[in-house]
Write a structure and sequence with these properties.
This protein is an all-alpha fold. It is built from three helices and no strands.
């Protein structure tokens, strides 16, 4: 959940999204990766699948955020 908050994917209790905090998101994703390594062989297949898929989606979301152009700038070759 910390990674999702850091990526700005969750709304707060006031209905607003918190500011993006990429370093905090990376730390949370890294911790989940360590958890995945340390629990290898001790989880059910379903638990392994949930952790693997969750980490995949968080990592892809993180990569999309760090590769996005800064706000107000467009990517090269984007006609808009």
């Amino acid at each position: 959940m910390g990674a999702m908050v850091g990526l700005g994917m969750l709304q707060g209790p006031d209905g607003k999204r918190p500011p993006v905090d990429l370093p905090a998101a990376k730390d949370a994703i890294d911790l989940l990766g360590i958890l995945q390594e340390k629990t290898k062989g001790n989880l059910t297949k379903e638990e392994e699948e949930v952790l693997r898929e969750g980490l995949y989606h968080l990592r892809m979301g993180y990569m999309a955020m760090i590769n996005a152009p800064p706000a107000g700038r467009k990517k090269e070759g984007d006609p808009r």
